[in-house]
Amino acid sequence: xxxxxxxxxxxxxxxxxxxxxxxxxxxxxxxxxxxxxxxxxxxxxxxxxxxxxxxxxxxxxxxxxxxxxxxxxxxxxxxxxxxxxxxxxxx
Length: 91
Description:
The protein is α+β, with helices and mostly antiparallel strands. It has one domain (about 1-90). It is about 35% helix and about 30% strand. The chain has helices spanning about 20-30, 40-60, and strands at about 1-5, 10-15, 65-70, 75-80, 85-90. The protein has a 5-stranded mixed β-sheet with strand order 1-2-3-4-5. A hairpin with a 7-residue loop joins strand 3 (about 65-70) and strand 4 (about 75-80). The longest helix has 19 residues, at about 40-60. The chain is globular, with a radius of gyration of 13 Å. The model has no long low-confidence stretch (mean pLDDT about 95).
């Protein structure tokens, strides 16, 4: 799916997409939110939210998990913190 880095200043694990198919699908969805269902966005965000809950269980509260845009690593497409979605680009 991608590489993971840790941004210490705000306790965020950032996933940067590296897989070409994933990057293409996410870029297309950014441009046309109507294809979110087609690319499995709900399933992906559900899994990221569950991973965020696992991080909370392992490390404690206050950590975020962010999926970065494949076109701009400073722009989030989805963020979850402590097992709850906090940002979703299509909502």
